[in-house]
Structure formats: structure tokens, C-alpha cells
Amino acid sequence: AGTSSDRPVRMGVGPRFPPCALLALALPFALSAELLLPHGADRGDAALEPGDDARSAALELGTALRFYGAAVRSLYVATNGIIAVNEPKNEEKYLGQFPVSFGAIAPFMADLDTTDGRGNVYYREDSSSDVLQLASDYIKGGFPEAAFDPSSVVIVTWKLVAPYQGSGEDLSLEEKRNTFQAVLASSDSSSYAIFLYPEDGLQFYSAYSKNDDGKVPAMVGFSQASTNYYFWENPGSYNVIANDEDSIRNLHKSSNAGRQGVWVFEIGSSSDTIVPAKVSSVLTSLEPSEEDQELTSKPFMSDYGSTEIRPQYVTSSTDSTEEDQHVTYSVPQLAVEDFITSYQDFPAQQFPPQGPQVIDVEEFDETGIVFRYHTDVQQTCANNRHQCSVHAICKDYPNGFCCSCIAGYKGNGRQCVAEGSPQRVNGKVKGRIFVGNNPVPVTFENTDLHSYVVMNHGRAYTAISTIPEALGYSLLPLASIGGVIGWMFAVEQQGYKNGFSITGGEFTRQTEVTFLGNNEKLIIKQKFSGIDEHGHLTISTEMEGRVPEVPSGASVHIEPYTELYHASSSVITSSSTREYTVTEPERDGVASTYTGAYQWRQTISFDECIHDDTLHAAPATQQLSVDSIFVLYNRDEQILRYAMSNSIGPISDGSADISRNPCYTGTHNCDTNAVCRAGTGNRFSCECSIGFRGDGNVCYDIDECSEQPGVCGSNAVCNNQPGTYRCECVDGYQFAADGRTCVAVEYAVNHCQAGTHGCDIPQRAQCVYTGGSAYICTCLPGFSGDGRACEDIDECQQGRCHPDAFCYNTPGSFSCQCKAGYRGDGFQCVLGGVVKTKCQHEKEVALGSGGTFFQREIRVGQFIPQCDEHGNYVPTQCHGSTGYCWCVDRDGNEIDGTRSGPGVRPPCLSTAAPPVGIGPSVRPDTIPLPPGTHLLFAQSGKIEHVPLEGNNMKKNGAKALLHIPDKVIIGVAYDCMDKMVYWTDISGPSISRASLHGGEPTTIIRTDLGSPEGIALDHLGRNIFWTDSQLDRIEVARLDGRQRRILFDTGLVNPRAIVVDPVRGNLYWTDWNREAPKIETSYMDGTNRRILVKDDLGLPNGLTFDPYSSMLCWVDAGTKRLECMNPNQLGRRKIVEGIQYPFGVTSYGKNLYYTDWRRDAVVAVDRMVSVENDNFQPHKRSRLYGITTAFAQCPGGHNYCTVNNGGCTHLCLATPEGRSCRCPDNTVGVDCIERN
Fold this sequence. Notes:
The longest helix is centred in the first third of the chain and has 14 residues, at 129-142. The relative contact order is 0.05. β83 (1161-1166) and β84 form a beta hairpin. Among the domains are: 41-276, no CATH class; 420-649, Green Fluorescent Protein (Beta Barrel); 704-744, Laminin, CATH 2.10.25; 795-831, Ribbon (Laminin); 838-900, Thyroglobulin type-1 (Invariant Chain, Chain I), CATH 4.10.800; 959-1195, Neuraminidase. Helices cover 6% and strands 40% of the residues. It is mainly β. Residues 421-658 form the Nidogen G2 beta-barrel domain. Residues 836-908 form the Thyroglobulin type-1 domain. LDL-receptor class B repeats lie at residues 979-1021, 1022-1064, 1065-1109. Residues 1-32 form the signal peptide. One of its GO terms (cellular component) is basement membrane.
């Protein structure tokens, strides 16, 4: 461990750089390094001594730091992720504890270790203008109205630091490293702290503590130094930003300052509190995952249209032991999706000042993770009215606001439904349940749950489908799976509230069921997410555990029961023991019965508004009465059904009391769309629900659209619905930001199609539409320029032909011709003959000289090497007399471990296909693709698209293009002429296509396939090419799947990616053979096959050819590199290194886009400057496969097959100098003519 020095250190000012030079700095962290301020030894930084508990000497500050209202003139930097305002104690005294007595700023306080080269800690004070400007820009992102001009910054960088590892501890942490930075900016009157967390900069979130046997999560926050008196110590205030793994994991993709990974706080001014930044703009590049979205509140649909509002409450709690010091507020923000779509007009959360109390705020980011800090805030109706239902009023209170439903509606104010109207509940169920003693669980997911509730009877009908018969009967006793819906809409006795009135249908429920007897346990987790845009309550259910077996065909009876619900702050609990009777199927005319029982314990958690005391008028303990219970399993339909009647009221022993009123027992005769109003004794009255009209016994729907013709305004249509209505804009109009007014849609202009672009003439340039009204101009191959003005490239000046050939330049191209006396194609010329390959030479020697003897494990006879039609070695070489066979590489060398005995050909190729996913069949219609250029990528059973704007991914426009859940889609190709997407499926196997204008997909090839993976499309010749890693061949066919022909069925072990260059007539593919990976090429007719790259390859998975730059690029999961080359020139260029597990790759503009299995993301790389610049992670996390670019317009150029199929009767296959007419395999008859 390092020790502190007694000698103060005064840091000098860092070197000055002009603004443009900052962009050229080699930042020290490869991933999102541009987030960090410049640092390192070359910037004049001091570095901490390596160690487990090192700390610097006092860093004397030129400008005092304002911290909790006090001036701090020196700081101490420590290994363990803190900057101390007083000399820190030994780590055993403070790690795992917060606050700390010496006072600290903690961007990541944990037991860190930099011994043995495991990272560095750099620090300096800097007052150079460029660094001050960078810090100021971050601060203005979070405090746009602050007039702050820093005079000095302290920059502390923890670079690639490791967690402390004791002997024998978690080896998974061994290679993980964290990089983060704290920037403290000060002026004469105030100071700000900036915490910077680059993407992938935090690879671990906890560290083992020497004081504790387990891992302790890191702590992010601020701690004021304690005040020491004669006999006691008064702790200072403190602020916690994050102190659990989920919170810390999300630091890099969240922000309070408008940019991912950036957190800004005012830490000292005239105030003695910490003030967090307000999000002043949409977070950049933030894509919440599907799991993240499930944690946010579901929107509801306004009567005025389809605007989504995410209602959330402001809640608070007071710590009784520190009542004068700590109040905890929860201030949820609008989810990021709201900012991105229609709620940018809502003001950012405003925090007006109030009394000088220290307030601990819990802020929910878009992932649902809580970030805590202290501030002085208060929420009012003025900027939070949207959090209330449109059928509610908002009322301000001294410490916040509350929502309450208006008369005629029930709920908690955030969610309100019409009294008495039937309700519908929809959701999904998944589970993993063991039945009886069966060691194999029954698993199911994506199972539908539907429920219908007659509110004025409190009767809930629930159906779950499809549940396998092996489990269905055994779930019959668990009626309370649907019983929670009955509690939500139970009939309310006077002064009592059902679940919806308390929670608004937004809560989580965790239930533990323990079956008495064999002690089986089942855990049920349910999440209710409020009312969706269709007016239905949404629910998700998960079940895991073991249940006793109920015999198939048995019936279950459950007697009426009561259950006590105990409510406290935001939590409701209940527990009970329930009995059920099982009647087994008759055997020999006798049906035996037995009784079972289970203990039921549940906890319901929800947000409540604490400011309005009248909302807490319901008693703390209420009794739910459940009767008329009906349970059934239909084995033919595999549907599980529950039905029950529910009422909520006081604790009762069942004797006659007010609960006998017909409104509470459900024995009234009110219409199902009416409210039953209890009177005295057995008296009651019926009143039609809002949206209905009648005497209560019979209620009719009110047609608001007919009675109020102008209710929706102009350019809108009104659709009547039971009890309500909905407004929808007519074609050509959309809702404005207010969610009510329909305004005209501004249509984009495709200047490329309209001919109003500024590109050069079509013979020299191409206009590429990029979405909206934007386009780019690119010169055609053979021309150079900016696309608006293109000049012919004289290839003859570049020495493209052989020295013994003549070069003839033509507009956009050139040709080579060997001189007299030489033979060849102009690129290779030989005097009077043809150069023989090594294989041909060895074969000629063997045949001509009587042969040579090869010494291997045993002596063998004469061996004659086998060469293919191009003179290359056949990959599988066999001895003619002994029958021994072995695999060879390109140079004819035997590959170790492949020799096999006589009569057995070695497996010089792999036929293992990826795993096949099985899922339910859904209607696989494609969704019409919007105009513009898009990325299309495969994700197992679906194809998704991401629109491109210029070189940027428009991630908020990403969505699934096609769903085929029972298929495993690997390769994707796009036909830019017919706007069709093609894909390979290894589960069928099959090759299919679908129009991007919408409609059902069509399978074009389904026979004689093994494991089709890569697919490429020649839009000029109208052919498709694909690789088959099981049959080890490459094939070609017409776009409709007819006229199949095998191009290659030799020399392939694991062929995967394949791309075409239609203009030049070339074909390229990868083979990830573990013994000899390679990238090969040939003409599109299969001739001139040759290996292009074979050295320094590992697992070349993905391949792409950019038609505009003529660059061939690939991703390699073995070398973890993305590389490019010009196929016509020597040399390769490494674009990026250290990527994780790439699979597919495509190109557009200056960017390359690859899919990554480890990150489950599409990653964008700027190939010009060799840096990653963006990534997109779909909502549903799973492996991504092939990726391609769907161009708005086809790339320019033509080949000899473009017009009239090149004059061919069947397949027209382009070559660099012409085309080949080829017949399909197994052609019968004489109507097909082959010619070159």
C-alpha cells in the first residue's frame, strides 16, 4: 500500500492546446474515450504510486473548491475511487461505509487495486483555456441557465483500474477493468463536479472487501466532512447517487445532463447543498432494452387521440430518527421514449428552492433504477398535470401534488376508469414449474392471459392459454393467480377501497405458495402496468417452483374464503391458509376425493401520494371476501379458467351486517354498465356509468360522435366505443404536440427521384437518397470527385496492367491487352505459354518421372497430387494405391490430424449447424418500409430495420420488419430494384423473400439444403448466391429460386459470408475453417477462383463489399478485428481492433456496421478515422446475425447481364470482361445453351 507524504504538492498548469488540436489527442480509452477530458503523463498529470490503498500528498489548489458551502484549498486523491477534502484514513476504516468522516467526492468508491500494472490513477489541476471550455460545455449541458466561468479544474482519472482480489476469490473479476473520471471545476464563487463514465468503462460494479467476506457494491456520491467537538463528532451531510449494482451498471447509459455517461452537480456556492443538473435535452444514443421498458409505467390513451403519457407519482417518506435532517423524495422523470416522441414540449423538471433542509431525492431513470441525491425540490401541478389521468384533477399541497379521480370515475388519480363499467385485463404468462416428483419442469412463455370483470358484481373471469395438460390440472387449486384481478375490482363497501382505487392498476405483486404436506413451494411474480391505449389493464406473470400433482381429468372445488389485507406506506401484505378438494376421475364407477391445503403469502408494492390525507381514509386492514369460486381446465383447448366474486369491506365473522346489501353481495339487478349505490338496509339504486344512458336497470351506450359532431375538431374522425370515443386524424394528418389538434404531415422530397438534385450526370455520378429530403452524391467507379463534379480516373497511369501489356483508358474504366508474343488476360502475361501452378508442376513431374515416394507414418507407393480445373490443390488429397486420404492447405501441405484409413474420406469440412429455435407460429406479414436507406439485420426469428440519416442510425425509428418466430434467420440480402428482402433459414432449412411494400413472405427454395447461411444478391443479373456450411458448397439461382446451379462444392469447410460485386462480376466469400480460415474470390460464373486472404485470420464471420469505394471489409471473431482491403491491390488495413464477437457486417457512406454476439448490438465504426462512433441495441436482447444495407436507390453501374439477361437462355453470370451463359444443374432437354 502507498503512503502519503507530509510535503504538500503544488500542481502546475497543464499544457495548452488550440481547440482543433484537442480533436487529435490520442485519448487513453478506446471505448467512448471522447467522453473523457484529456489526461495522462503527456498532459502533465501526476500519477499515484501503484498500490491497493495509495493516496496522494495534499494537492494545493490555485482556486479554492467550494464544497457544501465551505472553501477547500487542498485535496487528496486515493486509489479507491475518491477525492478526499481531508487526509483520508486507511481503507479498512471507511470502505463499505458512507458518509466518510474526512469528507469526499466519490465517483466510484470501492476497494480498487493498481499493483502489478493493473491500471493507473492520474490527477492534475489545469487552467488552460481549452480544458476549461470542455468542462464548461459539460456544465452548461446540465445547467443551461447558469452563468459559470471556471478559472480552474481538477481532473482525476482512474484508468483501467482493477478490483481488489483476495486469494481464491471470484475469478470472473480477474480481467475486468474500470475507467472513469471526475472533473471539479471552480470559479471564485462556485464549484461543480462532473462524473464521466465512458461506454464499457465500468466492467465491474462491486469489489471484495477486506472487512467482509462478500462483495460490496461501489458507492457514488458526496460526503461532507464531520465536525469535531470536545467529546463527540457531528456527521456531515451526504448525498448518494448510486450504491447498488443495477444503479452503477446504468451510469454509462444514463445522465442528468443530456449526454450518456455524463453526471453534473453544483457542489458549492452560496448554498450549502448539492444540486443535481436537470436534463436539458434528450439523452443521446440511449436505447432502453425491452426489460428496461417493462419497468416504466404503461401509457394510457387520451380521449382526444393517441398521445402517450407516462403517469408517475411523486412520493416521499420521512425517517423518524432523523426527522429534522433527512426527507426522502421520489421524483420520477418522463421516460426517454416520451422525450423522443411527442413530449418535447413538456418543460424539464423544475426544482424551485424551498427551506434550507437537506432532501434525499430518488430519481427513476428510464431503466427504473433509482438514483439518490440530496437537493431542494418541490413538484407542483403546473408542470406535472400530465401525470394525472384526463379524468382526474390535480391539487397542490405544501410538499407536492396529488391526483384524484373526478366524480363518476374510480382509481388513484393517475389511472381512472368509469364506475360500474366492465373492465378487461390482458397480459402474458411464463413459467418453469415442476409437477409432483417429476424431475423435468414444464416450461412455457408468451402464454396469453385475458380477464373480464363485471365491476358492479365484483366478478372476475380469467383465462390462461395455452397451458400443457401435464401442468394444467395441477394449477387448478391456485385460483388466486387470477384472484388478484378480483381484489383490484372487488365491490367496495362504504368507506373501503379495492385494489384499483388504491394502486390505479400500477403495482408489483410477489407471492409465495407453500403446499402443506410435502412442502412444495411456488413463487408467483406479477407486474401490473396500468391502462394501455386500448383501455385495457396490462399484466405480466412469472411462476417458478413445484406444485403437487393433480390427476389428469380431476375436478377441484374451493370453498368461499376471506383474506385480510394489511396496508402501510406503499405496501400491502396478506397471508392465509386455504383448502381445496380434489375429485379424481371415476374408476369402476367410484370417484375418490382428497383435501389439500397451502399457505399463501403475498406482498403488493406500489407508489402512493402521501400529501393528501383524504386518500388514506381507507382502514389499514380490510377484508376481502371471495365466493362463487369456479375453476376448470379444458384439455382440448389447453385453457385454464378461474372465476370468482369479490367484495372488500370490514373484518367480519359472517354474521348479518351491512355487507348483506345487494350491492355488496352482487344480488342486485343493475345493468352490467351501471353502478350499484347502496342505501340503508337492503335498499339500493342503479345508476348508468359515464358514457351510458338509461334507468340503471338497462343502460345504452351514448354515441358521442353523433351527439357532438365537432368533438374531434377538423381533419379528424370520431370513432364511438362503449362508454367513450376516440379521435383519429385523417390520412395526411397527424396529431400535434398537444395530442388533440390534427396538423398536415410534412412530406419529404426525394430529390434523386425527382431529378432536382445537384449531382453530376448519371454517366459519372449517382444520387443516393438518405431519407427525408436529404441525399448524397457519389462518383461512379472509375471516376473521382465529390459527386457533384466527377472526373475520369486514368487507370493506365496507375500501372494496373502487366508490364508486357498495353493499357487502354476508357471513361470510367480501362482494358489491358498482352503485347504480341505474350499470352494472358493483360493483368498477367507470359511469353508464348501459360504459367503452371505448383500443383500442376508437381503432378507433371510425378507423371513424367515415374513419381517420388513421400515419407509419412508408413511407406506408401507412388502419389500423384490432384489439381482442380484452375490448377489449385483439391482440399482432400487421396493416395491412389493405398486409399489413405488427408486434408491439404492451399500449398498442398498436409493438415495435421486429418489422415484417415483406406476407404474413409476425412471430414475436411464442418457440417455443424447453429441451434434451431422453436416458437409459436404468428402471421409473418412484413411491415412496409418507410422511404430512405435502412440497415436490415436478422435476430433469430425476425428481421429488424434501423433507418439511416446520413451516416447516423435513427434509433428511435427502429422496429421489427418481419416476424417469423419459428425460424432461425441467419443471412439477409436486399434487392434494391424490386424492394425485396431475402433471407436464409437454417431451421427449415429454406431460403425465402418478402416485399418491403408489405405482405406475406414466400419460400423460394426448400429442398436440397443443409445449413444455408450467407446470401448475396446480384441486382443487375437478377441472381442470388448462397453458402451452405453443411453441404459445403456455394450455389446460384434466379431470384425466384429456379435454375439452381452449384458453383463450388470443393475447397470449402465452413463457408459463411458471401458478397457480390455485380459491376465487376466478382464473387467473394469467407471460410472459417479452424485449421485454415480464408477469404476467397472468383468470377460470378465460378471461374478464376482464388484465395484472397489466408494469413492472420481466425474466424472471419462477416464480409461486405462497398460499391462506392470498391473496398472489401470483413469482421473476424478470432482476431477480434475489422479489416479492409482493395481486392485489386496488395495490403490490408486494420480499421479497429479489440472488438468482442462480431458476426455480420455491412457498409454505408463512411461507416461500417457490424453485429456483435457479446454486445447483442449493431455497432457503427467510422472507417475513415478508425473509431467506433455509435451502437444500437434492440429492445429484446438476443444474438444478432446477418446485416445488410437497404439502399434507397440502387448503386450505379451495369454489367453484361443487365439487358435482356445478357442474351442467355437461362443463367447469366457476369465476369469482369463479359458474361457466361450457364445451364442449371440436372437440366433435361436441349433448350439450354451454354456459352461464354
